[in-house]
Amino acid sequence: MKYLLVTALILGVFWLWRHNREAEKNAAQPRPQPPKTLPATEIVACSVCDVHLPQSEALIGRKGDFYCCEAHRREAQAQ
């Protein structure tokens, strides 16, 4: 019984030593920064085909309408 208790004590001390060593190693490593999020962009619909696209990529017509391509802008202005 005495040897069992001594063995359990040695294993417990070894486990604590190893656990603390790993914790110190992990604390020394810098934590990765969370990825920076891009600012939200407004989504608009093409006035001709109703395709949705970011406002920064849309073409603007004379009336302030949004278009997905030059052909649709010309088509709407011809009418």
Write the layout of secondary structure elements.
Elements: H1 2-28, E1 43-45, E2 52-54, E3 59-60, E4 66-67, H2 70-78
Antiparallel strand pairs: 1-2, 3-4
How would you concisely characterize the structure shown here?
The chain is an alpha+beta fold.
Detailed description of the structure:
The protein has a domain at 43-78. The protein is 46% helix and 13% strand. The protein has helices at residues 2-28, 70-78; strands spanning 43-45, 52-54, 59-60, 66-67. A hairpin with a 5-residue loop joins strand 3 and strand 4. The protein is rod-shaped and about 100 Å long. The model has no long low-confidence stretch (mean pLDDT 88).
Main sheet summary: 2 strands, antiparallel
If helices are DSSP runs of H or I spanning 4 or more residues, what is the number of helices?
A: 2
Radius of gyration of CA atoms, rounded to a whole number: 33 Å
Strand content: 5-15%
- Which structural category do the helix and sheet elements fall into? alpha+beta
The residue-averaged pLDDT reads 88
Q: Write the element-wise H/E pattern from the N-terminal end onward.
A: HEEEEH
Poorly predicted ranges: none
DSSP strand count: 4
Strand order of the largest sheet: 1-2
Q: What is the rounded distance between the termini?
A: 99 Å
The amount of helix comes to: 40-55%
User: Which descriptor suits the 3D outline?
Assistant: rod-shaped
